[in-house]
Fold TipAS antibiotic-recognition domain-containing protein.
Amino acid sequence: MARTEQRQHRTDGALARSYLANERVGRNYDDMAPGLSRYIHDAIMANADRASS
């Protein structure tokens, strides 16, 4: 995997964690649909894990 792709997946992971760690961000999504912030987090992390395998 190219270095740029690895760096992008690390950035994606940081973004995914913000959906859970930052209450304001998480609440924004959870107000749209309960559990949406967790769903988005899990989807981003699954994609990053899959790409790094």
Q: What stands out?
A: The helical segments are 3-21, 23-32, 36-52. The first helix runs from residue 3 to 21. The chain is about 85% helix and 0% strand. Residues 15-51 form one domain.
